[in-house]
Design goal:
Helices cover 43% and strands 28% of the residues. It has 197 residues and is of the alpha+beta class. Bound molecules: zinc ion (ZN). Zinc ion binds next to loops.
Length: 197
Amino acid sequence: MNKKIFIMHNTCMKRIIFYSILIFIFSCFIGFFYSRIWKTNNDELSKQMNNVNELNIVTETFSNEEKISFNSTFAIKKYYDECGHVEVNYSELPTELINLSKTEVEQLYSDWNVEEFSSNNVILSQEEDSICNEHYVVKLSDNNVDIYHLEQDGEEKLYKTTNVIKEYLTQEDINNLENGIYVYGKENINSVIEDFE
Ligand SMILES: [Zn+2]
């Protein structure tokens, strides 16, 4: 009798141990399975987060690109290769430029160099294979002194006649004027003329 109880007890214990091991293995399996799912989801999530971050960086770069504002100053700059002078002309901002980025301006004005670019200042420049517009020659015509403008093609075009007449000039002045006195800048013409008056 005692022995039978002991045997039954022993069988019971074996079963308990067997089931415990089974539950343990099963738990391990469940644990492993869930950790895999969790890891996969996490990888997926971090990938998505990375994509969102990249998108944000791209959007930020795009929106940070400087654009021309409506009250920006605008100038055209010309480099004249033949005389070496530089001419800068400020004018009203063309409305087609408002809100454009530097790249867009370069595409629109492909013949020009975008020399300066910010939201409030734009300068476009270009090289000219000629002299600038500020060259004049003071010369003696038949009886009086005239002023000629030097055209970009090298031609001399009558710009102004003066009241300075030949008979009051010294021989040296006459010689100089026959060769022509070159003047740069409209504002400097008068001082040259005054020397003969
Ligand atoms: Zn010049």
